[in-house]
C-alpha cells in the first residue's frame, strides 16, 4: 500500500506578508530552504519512511505507459462533478515517479477539474488533446460557464448534469449554437422532479451551421430531456442512451427504428421509458445492427416486441429486456413474451438459466453462457397478475434444437411453477446442477420421481411413446443430474403425507435403483427437518451436505428404514393419486 505523508503547516516560519512581497522565483527557493531548515526530526523520519514504502511497492515499478493507462482509467471511473474532492489529481502527490508520469501525460490533464487555480494549469498541460468536461451545474460552485464557452472548440466529451432551469440557462444563454467540431460524446442529465415540463435541446446544439459529416461517430446520452428526432446527433452513433423522456419527447416505433438505421455502427443501445408508442406498420424485413453488443430495453411489452422483431443483433453479448406493465393493466399476451425469449439472436447456446421473482411484481428469466460470455436477462413486470410463463417456456422448448434448453447445465428456480412449466424445463437434457429456493419443490420432485420409477418398471404403462427411448425404455428427466440444492424452504410437518422431504427420499431411492444416482444433495437454511429424514438422506445420496439449520427435535413416525422400497412406493402411490398435493 502506498503512503502519503503530509507536512505540518507550522514548519514554515515565513510570515504570509513577507512571502507575498518576494518575487515568484525567490519565493519558491525561500520556501524550500525554510522547510528543510526547520523540519523536525519526527517529520523527516515519517517523510523518509513514506518514501521508502512507496519505492518498495510493486506498483512503483510499472512502466510509464501502463501507469498512464491506469491513471486514465481512474479519471474516467471517478469524475469530479461537484465542488469537493480532487479525483484523479491525487495520483500526482503519491510518489515523485508518479508525478513525473502524470505531468508527461496530456490525455490525463484533459480531464478538467473545475477549480479556479487548476483550470488554467490543466488547459496548458493538456496541450491540444480534446477536453473531457464533466460537471454538475447545481453542485460545483467553482464552475464558470465561460470556461466552456471559451474552450468549446477543444471539447471532446461533455457531460452536463443539473436542474431544468440551470440547464436552460447554460444552453440558451452561454452555449447557444456555438460549434464544437471535436465534440464526440454529449451527455445531458436533467435532475428535475417527475412531472416537470419537457426540456428540449436545440436540434443543432454544438453543430452551429456546419453540415453533417458522415464519417464522424458520436455518443449520445439524454435523461429527462429531448432532441428533435431530425437532429444530426441521431446519426452515426456508437452509443445511444435515452431514459425517462417526457410524453412530448416520445415518438412512434417507426420513427425510432428509422433513427437506429442511421447508426449502423451502433455498439450500445439503452432505451428506458422513452414514451415510444406503437403503430400498425407491417414490417416484413428486420434491420441488422451488426456491431451491437449491449442492449438494455425497458419499455411496455408490446413496444419491446415491436422493436425486437424489427431488429437483428448478430454480435449481441449482453441483453437486458424489462417488459413494463401495460398501461391498461391487462395481462400481457403470451405471444409477445415468445417474440422476446425466442428472438433468433437470443436463442444461443446458454449454460445457465435462472427463473426468479426479484420483486413481488417482477419475474426474471436470465441466462448466461460460460463459453461465449453471452447473457440474456428478461424482466417481466406483471403487476400482480398471472404472468404467461408456461406458454413462454413452451415456446422456448420448441426451440430446443437451437440449443435453448439442450445445453443448459445449471438451473435455479425460486418461483412456483405449474406442472406444464416443469415438463418444459425437463427438456434440459444436459442439466447437472439444480437449485430450488423459497418455494415448495414437491411438484418437480414428484415429476422426477415419477419418471425415475418408470425407469425401473413402476407405473411405466402411463408413459406415452414420445417419452420413450429407441429401445422402449422410459426417458429419464435430467439424466445427468449430479447436484440438487434446496434453499430457504419450510417443509410441512406431518400429518400431511407425503411432504416434499418424503418425495426427495423416494426420488433418491428410485434414481439409485435405476442406476442414475444423484451424487450430491445440499439442504441450506431450511425449516422442519427431522432426524429420520437426515439419516435417510445420508444413506440414499452419494454425498449429503446440511448446514445444521432448521432441525426439528420432534420424532417422525415412518417406515422408511430399513424397508426403503416399500416406503418409496407408498410415496409414489400417494403422489399419483387424485386429490390435493402438499
| Beta-strand segment tally | 18
Biggest sheet record: 16 strands, mixed
Task: Tally the helices.
Answer: 18
Content-based structural category: alpha/beta
- Work out the strand percent: 15-25%
Tell me, rounded to a whole number, the average pLDDT. 80
Sum up the overall morphology in one term: globular
Task: List unreliable stretches of 5+ residues.
Answer: 3-20, 32-36, 578-582
Strand order of the largest sheet: 1-2-3-4-5-6-8-10-13-12-11-14-15-16-17-18
The radius of gyration is 33 Å
**Ends apart, CA distance between termini:** 58 Å
Organism: Favolaschia claudopus
InterPro entries: F-box-like_dom_sf
Protein name: F-box domain-containing protein
Structural summary, described in words:
The structure is a single chain. Among the domains are: 9-57, no CATH class; 251-426, no CATH class; 432-582, no CATH class. 32% of the residues lie in helices and 17% in strands. It contains 18 helices and 18 strands. The strands form two sheets. Strands 1-2-3-4-5-6-8-10-13-12-11-14-15-16-17-18 form a 16-stranded mixed beta sheet. Helix 16 (500-513) crosses helix 18 (564-576). The protein is globular and about 90 Å long.
Amino acid at each position: 500500500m502506498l503512503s502519503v505523508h503530509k507536512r505540518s503547516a507550522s514548519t514554515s516560519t515565513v510570515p504570509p506578508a513577507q512571502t507575498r512581497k518576494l518575487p515568484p522565483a525567490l519565493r519558491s527557493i525561500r520556501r524550500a530552504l525554510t522547510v528543510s531548515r526547520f523540519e523536525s526530526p519526527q517529520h523527516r523520519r515519517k517523510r523518509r519512511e513514506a518514501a521508502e514504502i512507496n519505492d518498495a511497492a510493486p506498483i512503483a515499478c510499472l512502466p510509464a505507459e501502463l501507469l498512464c493507462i491506469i491513471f486514465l482509467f481512474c479519471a474516467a471511473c471517478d469524475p469530479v462533478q461537484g465542488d469537493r474532492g480532487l479525483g484523479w489529481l491525487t495520483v500526482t502527490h503519491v510518489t515523485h515517479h508518479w508525478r513525473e508520469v502524470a505531468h508527461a501525460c496530456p490525455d490525463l490533464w484533459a480531464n478538467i477539474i473545475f477549480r479556479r487555480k487548476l483550470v488554467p494549469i490543466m488547459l496548458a498541460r493538456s496541450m491540444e488533446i480534446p477536453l473531457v468536461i464533466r460537471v454538475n451545474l447545481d453542485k460545483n460552485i467553482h464552475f464558470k460557464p465561460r470556461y466552456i464557452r471559451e474552450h468549446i472548440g477543444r471539447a471532446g466529451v461533455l457531460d452536463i448534469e443539473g436542474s431544468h432551469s440551470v440547464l436552460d440557462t447554460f444552453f440558451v444563454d452561454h452555449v447557444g449554437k456555438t460549434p464544437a467540431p471535436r465534440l464526440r460524446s454529449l451527455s445531458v442529465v436533467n435532475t428535475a422532479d417527475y412531472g416537470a415540463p419537457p426540456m428540449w435541446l436545440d436540434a443543432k446544439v454544438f453543430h452551429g451551421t456546419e453540415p453533417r459529416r458522415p464519417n464522424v461517430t458520436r455518443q449520445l446520452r439524454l435523461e429527462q430531456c429531448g432532441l428533435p428526432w431530425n437532429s444530426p446527433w441521431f446519426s452515426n452513433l456508437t452509443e445511444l442512451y435515452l431514459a425517462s423522456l417526457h410524453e412530448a419527447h416520445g415518438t412512434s416505433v417507426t420513427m425510432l427504428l428509422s433513427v437506429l438505421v442511421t447508426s449502423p455502427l451502433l455498439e450500445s443501445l439503452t432505451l428506458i421509458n422513452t414514451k415510444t408508442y406503437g403503430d400498425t406498420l407491417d414490417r416484413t424485413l428486420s434491420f441488422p445492427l451488426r456491431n451491437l453488443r449491449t442492449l438494455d430495453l425497458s419499455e411496455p411489452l408490446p413496444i419491446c416486441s415491436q422493436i425486437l422483431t424489427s431488429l437483428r443483433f448478430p454480435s449481441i453479448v449482453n441483453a437486458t429486456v424489462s417488459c413494463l406493465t401495460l398501461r391498461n393493466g391487462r395481462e400481457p399476451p403470451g405471444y409477445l413474451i415468445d417474440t422476446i425469449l425466442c428472438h433468433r439472436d437470443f436463442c444461443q447456446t446458454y449454460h445457465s438459466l435462472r427463473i426468479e421473482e426479484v420483486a413481488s411484481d417482477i419475474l426474471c428469466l436470465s441466462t448466461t453462457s460460460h463459453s461465449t460470455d453471452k447473457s440474456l436477462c428478461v424482466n417481466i413486470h406483471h403487476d400482480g397478475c398471472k404472468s404467461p410463463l408456461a406458454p413462454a417456456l413452451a415456446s422456448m422448448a420448441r426451440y430446443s434444437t437451437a440449443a435453448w434448453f439442450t445445453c443448459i447445465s445449471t438451473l435455479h428456480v425460486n418461483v412456483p411453477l405449474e406442472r406444464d412449466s416443469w415438463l418444459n424445463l425437463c427438456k434440459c437434457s444436459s442439466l447437472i446442477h439444480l437449485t430450488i429456493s423459497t418455494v415448495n419443490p414437491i411438484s418437480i420432485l414428484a415429476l422426477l420421481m415419477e419418471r425415475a420409477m418408470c425407469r425401473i418398471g413402476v407405473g411405466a404403462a402411463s408413459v406415452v411413446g414420445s417419452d420413450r427411448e429407441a429401445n422402449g425404455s422410459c426417458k429419464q428427466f435430467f439424466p445427468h443430474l449430479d447436484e440438487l440444492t434446496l434453499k430457504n424452504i419450510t417443509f410441512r410437518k406431518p400429518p400431511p403425507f407425503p411432504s416434499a422431504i418424503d418425495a426427495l427420499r423416494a426420488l433418491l431411492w428410485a434414481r439409485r435403483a435405476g442406476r442414475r444416482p444423484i451424487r450430491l444433495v445440499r439442504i441450506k437454511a431450511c425449516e422442519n427437518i427431522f432426524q429420520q429424514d437426515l439419516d435417510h438422506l445420508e444413506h440414499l445420496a452419494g454425498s449429503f451436505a446440511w448446514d445444521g439449520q432448521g432441525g426439528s427435535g420432534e420424532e417422525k413416525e415412518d417406515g422408511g428404514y430399513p424397508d426403503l422400497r416399500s416406503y418409496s412406493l407408498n410415496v409414489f402411490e400417494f403422489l399419483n393419486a387424485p386429490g390435493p398435493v402438499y
